[in-house]
Amino acid sequence: MIRITQVKSSIGQTKKQKETLKSLGLRGIRKSVEIELNPQLKGMVDKISHLVTIEEI
Which end of the chain is more exposed for a tag (fewer CB within 10 A), N or C? Predict the structure, then answer.
């Protein structure tokens, strides 16, 4: 399990990055989600790594 927290705004980011944030369930700065990591989700997180922080639980 990992906790993903959005730390930067999606304003000014590409449409794909905004959709990735939305599909992970991140709706704003300082919002967090906990997910079970798998290869598909790891790829999504890698694409938006500059907007989020990641911690293992």
Answer: C
Cβ-based neighbours of 1, under 8 Å, separated by 6 or more: 34, 35, 36, 37, 56, 57
Q: Are the CB atoms for 4 and 33 separated by under 8 Å? A: yes
Q: Terminus-to-terminus CA distance in the chain, angstroms?
A: 6
Tens-digit pLDDT profile for residues 2-56: 999 999 999 999 999 999 999 999 999 999 999 999 999 999 999 999 999 999 9
Stated pTM of the model:
0.89
